[in-house]
Amino acid sequence: MSEPLRIAIAGLGTVGAGIVKIVQQHGALLAARAGRSVEIVAISARSRTKDRGVDLAAYAWEDDPVALARRDDVDLLIEVMGGEDGPAKACVETALQNGKHVVTANKAMLAIHGQEMAIQAERAGVALRYEAAVAGGIPIVKALTEGLAANGITRVMGVMNGTCNYILTVMEETGASYNDVLKDAQDLGYAEADPAADVGGFDAAHKLSLLAATAFGAQVRFDNVVIEGIERITLADIENAADMGYRIKLLGVARMAQDGLEQRMQPCLVPAASPLGQLEGVSNMVVVEGDHVGQTVYQGPGAGEGPTASAVMADVVDIARGLVMPVFGQPADTLARPNASSAGSDARYYLRFSLSDQPGVLAELASILGRHDVSINRMRQYDHDGQAAPLVIVTHATGRPALDLALAEISALSACLAAPVALRIES
Ligand code: NAP
Ligand code: HSE
Is residue 169 domain-shared with residue 80, that is, in the same domain? Predict the structure, then answer.
């Protein structure tokens, strides 16, 4: 058997501790599959004394993750600290400069710095892998870069944030409040250090930008993703959607349109009976369409200790086997830099308004929609809830730019008591 692969782990939180458990529990299995043993040499985190539920006594300790990345006795750095800049970026760059392979779960960092890091890794002839950064335990990067390598990809879509799917489905199931369910997701280790990244849609948008780059041979352009979070979704929206046969999902879509790359991450209504509609809890689902293969679907746990550590270690095993591939499926200096698509396709929309209960308000609202060519398909006004009269409208297919103009005009009405909620209906 060849020399052991010597690894260092920067970050010993939910994911880092999970990685240590796998290496300690599955040492023989990893060695058999990789053809060489995988040994943890050194570790780093903020606190040296915190109990992490694993025995760390055998590993060298570094207070500074950059010093960890420089160690001569390390072949591969695993970065699972998080943060788009700061020590995570510093230690990854140091590792690459020192000719060490890197495996990271850090989508925030790669969504911003992925292109320059890919160039750095490829010039150094080392691997930079990120399976765990996208859709937790689902091997979606491997599917795109290997299993589907013979296809032109036409569309990638899916649910890519476990915390949001957990919140939306548990609220529906139990009627529990948004804040209580978010707290559960944090306790279960699903949420980001700042959960605003989850519920604001940014975490899922980071993931979508990485998948889009890999699928479409493009540089990562997180700045081109249209992002909306789930913060304004209420239990009433979830129930209204259910009444109409839909469920609300934070859904990402990336596709190459005629005028550029469309990337959007938004809460949408999807048919309750569809595979996406049936996705429960922390699960993620990614749908990839290729020109020869057709549609392929991947489902699994999108967050948490075990699934994420599993994805990290799959990358480590590949590197131990000697597999060093371009970071985004083709050499980074050949990746295109497409514009953001401006139009987006037409769709039906679910609209919820909070209106003051006065004569003429509904007529005024309908007339604004009409002037912008937004046609009403269904409408329901609920009883005054003590503060406002909630009105729900489902439109016929319309373009988002026209709808946004209409909504801006409606928002300016004195009778409109809160910013309207507009959710795309994905068929
Ligand atoms: P976490 O539980 O908050 O752990 C972060 C770890 O990094 C902690 O051990 C912390 O040390 C250490 N750390 C933070 N700042 C540091 C610094 N300046 N110097 C040294 N160590 C530092 O986070 P996590 O959930 O494991 O997530 C880690 C990464 O994986 C993030 O990029 C996240 O986006 C990604 N990820 C997470 C999941 C998930 O389900 N949790 C899934 C996919 C990807 P202390 O413990 O001493 O404070
Ligand atoms: N916070 C992320 C989620 C972790 O909930 O999906 C997995 O990337």
Answer: no
Nearest CA to ligand 1 atom 23: 13
Mutate which of 19, 21, 43, 46 for ligand 1 pocket (most atoms within 8 A of beta carbon): 46
Report CA(262)–ligand 1 centroid distance (Å): 31
Same-domain check for residues 249 and 289? yes
Per-residue confidence band for 388, with pLDDT thresholds at 50, 70 and 90: confident
Residue position matching structure tokens 């046609």: 375
| Domain contains 333 | no
Task: Give the residue numbers marked as catalytic.
Answer: 207
Ligand 1 proximal residues by C-beta, below 6 Å: 11-16, 44-47, 50, 65, 80-82, 87, 105-106, 132-133, 136, 189-190, 192-193, 303-304, 308
Distance, CA of 185 to chain centre: 15
> 222-253: per-residue pLDDT in tens?
999 999 999 999 999 999 999 999 999 999 99
Rounded to the nearest whole angstrom, what is the distance from the C-alpha of residue 151 to the centroid of ligand 1? 35
Write the CATH number for 98: 3.40.50.720
| Rounded Cα gap, residues 241 and 56, in angstroms | 49
**DSSP state, 297?**
E
What sign results for the dihedral spanned by CA atoms 91, 95, 97, 101? negative
Distance 223 CA to ligand 1 centre (A): 24
Using the structure block, give the residue that is written with the tokens 């990562």: 220
- Residue-wise pLDDT for 371-387, tens only, equals 999 999 999 987 777 77
pTM: 0.96
User: Strands (DSSP E) along 197-355, which ranges?
Assistant: 226-227, 246-257, 260-271, 283-290, 294-301, 348-355
pLDDT, averaged across the chain: 96
Q: What pLDDT is stored for residue 53 in this prediction? A: 96
CATH number for the domain that contains residue 186: 3.30.360.10
Distance (Å) from CA 77 to ligand 1 centroid: 14
